[in-house]
Amino acid sequence: MLSLGDETILDYQIRHLAKLNIERELIVVGYKRDLIVEHIARSEYGIPITIVHNKVFHETDNAYSLSLAFEHIDPETDSILILDGDILFRIWSIAEACPITARQCLHRRQRKKIEPEDCKVLVKNGFAASIGKSVQGNAAYTSMIRLSGPLLSEFTHMLKSRE
Which residues of 25-63 are buried (b: 16+ CB within 10 A; e: fewer)? Predict the structure, then answer.
């Protein structure tokens, strides 16, 4: 809900995603849920939005919130784009970094120095082998992933496991 000129970061993201022919958006909320739900209800975006409530957001992490959102998708037929709610992007950066035609995509930045608080990606032969804050990665994850097909099914299964 952070203001960005005349709109919020949330408005900016939704408005730009609508331009990419995204069929619907799932937004997982926890902190300040009522404020976000009211804001979305008052706004016109031109895209269906489903609000998913993480009641235990203060005890869980992004993976748990993502698992709640995944209860609303069909991993056998859907293609998804995962974005963190606090990032800014230009519409062309999504289209270029994770194009609709790509079945799988993880956008990352090569950096000379990766900071400890960065979510790191270990890239091997052009593929993400590991991802996480504790991973000894060679790139920083930019909070943008596209998944579909068998990888989406496996990812969904792993999110639901207790591992």
Answer: bbbbbbeeeeebeeebeeeeeebeeeebebeebeeeeee
Residue 27: closest CA among 63, 3, 46, 54: 54
Tens-digit pLDDT profile for residues 109-157 = 665 677 777 777 777 887 777 777 788 877 777 667 778 888 888 878 8
Global pTM value: 0.76
CA–CA separation, 151 and 148 (whole Å): 6
**Is the CB of residue 105 less than 8 Å from the CB of residue 146?**
yes
Task: Report the C-alpha gap between 83 and 119 in whole angstroms.
Answer: 14
Euclidean distance between CA atoms 4 and 136, whole angstroms = 34
**DSSP character at residue 85:** T
Question: What's the number of CA atoms in the CB half-sphere (13 Å) around residue 39?
Answer: 17
* Cβ atoms 103, 97 nearer than 8 A: no
Give CA–CA dist 102/87, Å, rounded. Answer: 21
